[in-house]
Amino acid sequence: MNRTLRRVKHKIVVMSGKGGVGKSTVATNIAVGLSLAGKKVGLLDVDVHGPSIPRLLSLRDAKVHIDANHIEPVPWSENLSVMSLGFLLPNPYQPVIWRGPVKQGFIQQLLADVAWGDLDYMIVDCPPGTGDEPLSVLQMLGADAKAVIVTTPQGVAVDDVRRSVTFVGDVGNSVLGIVENMSGIVCSQCGHVENIFGKGGGMRLAQETGVRFLGEIPLDPEVVRSGDEGYCFLKVQTDSPTAKAIQKILKPILLLPDPQDPAQAAVAAPAGFAPAPAETGIVKVAVPLAKGQLTQHFGHCEQLAVVTANFDTKEILSSELVTPPPHEPSVMPAFVERLGVRLVIAGGMGQKAQTLFNEKNITVICGARSDNGTGIGPSEVVSRYMQGTLPAGANTCDH
Ligand code: ADP
């Protein structure tokens, strides 16, 4: 097992609280997107109850080469290889009726014996839920495997995901982020997005659990068609709102520091730092200050620093101080929005205020800390955030 997995830089397990939320679709699009970005990717479908990756990628007739020592993955492109239980079943319509230990053994074999070679990313489509099978997948992959959890906006789905977040933490792995799928429906006539199931459940859960919200993918008839007909959505639809939403989700995954490069690995310390930035281009960032330093309580801020930075080159372009209006929950988000700010970096901020910012499409990073007791100024806060070295812990304000 180690022999195979040691050659993989990033292991990403795509999980969901239950079936049918689009886990396989998200796993496939992440794998394809990373491969189109030039990365060497392996997509492993260990969803023993419903292996759907062969259909999603039009590989249903693929033949797998197996010898005594290893299983050859099926190439989908130069950069993307695929392995699925679906390739090994004599009949794709046959349900898999195996007892637990047989399933575990099979999952173990797929994880250990597939000859991927060197990979930048292994994307694993995991069985849904929080039972024995996802548990085995995480344990066999090891503590450095990170989870992407897929949900839909409805309350019940969000509750399932809350369980998944706890489950991943209990097993000892970290959650890379939450994706809200089927978030609104794209009208096939005008392209307008209608929120039929409500919206924002995934983002609220991400805030509540301190997990990164990777983004939301609308319910798009083109995604259904691409899945049914087995063509690659991301390759055909490059400019649609859905393709752009998937590209946004890919960004932080592409920015994961290389664990085999010691300089980058130092930055990658999973605990104790703010998550890697998802922002690109020129961004205005607001930092709440008291006595000129990052304050731990947003509600006590005396001044706001508005720092403009180029997130591509990681340069600070300018910084100005503004005096905010008297604090009332709904006033600050509107004020900050008028300043053109897209990101707030705070020590602590109450849940309600975070939601109000998010409703204005302003991202909030909470739990930022001044690590050395002397405090750090706003440009330094933004600089460190861009470099991935901003100390961060729990939200220091939970009321
Ligand atoms: P899971 O792996 O969670 O069981 P799938 O990825 O197989 O779910 O998706 C279930 C169905 O929903 C498939 O028919 C798929 O094409 C469809 N689907 C998934 N995501 C979307 C989306 N964003 N828009 C439209 N249809 C989607």
Automatic annotation (TrEMBL):
Residues engaged in binding ATP: G17, K18, G19, G20, V21, G22, K23, S24
InterPro entries: Di-Nase_FeMo-co_biosynth (IPR003731), DiNase_FeMo-co_biosyn_sf (IPR036105), Mrp-like_CS (IPR000808), Mrp/NBP35_ATP-bd (IPR019591), P-loop_NTPase (IPR027417), YlxH/NBP35 (IPR033756)
Coiled coil: none
Domain Dinitrogenase iron-molybdenum cofactor biosynthesis: 292-368
One cellular component term from this protein's GO annotations in UniProt: cytosol
Database matches in Gene3D superfamilies: Dinitrogenase iron-molybdenum cofactor biosynthesis domain (3.30.420.130), P-loop containing nucleotide triphosphate hydrolases (3.40.50.300)
Signal peptide: none
Any matching Pfam family: ParA
GO MF assignments: ATP binding; ATP hydrolysis activity; ATP-dependent FeS chaperone activity; iron-sulfur cluster binding; metal ion binding
Keywords assigned by UniProt, alphabetized: ATP-binding, Hydrolase, Iron, Iron-sulfur, Metal-binding, Nucleotide-binding
Top-level division of the source organism's lineage: Bacteria
Alphabetical GO biological process terms: iron-sulfur cluster assembly
PANTHER family per the UniProt record, alphabetical: CYTOSOLIC FE-S CLUSTER ASSEMBLY FACTOR NUBP2, NUCLEOTIDE-BINDING PROTEIN NBP35 YEAST -RELATED
Subunit organization: Homodimer.
Role summary: Binds and transfers iron-sulfur (Fe-S) clusters to target apoproteins. Can hydrolyze ATP.
Family: Belongs to the Mrp/NBP35 ATP-binding proteins family.
Protein name: Iron-sulfur cluster carrier protein
Native source species: Desulfovibrio psychrotolerans
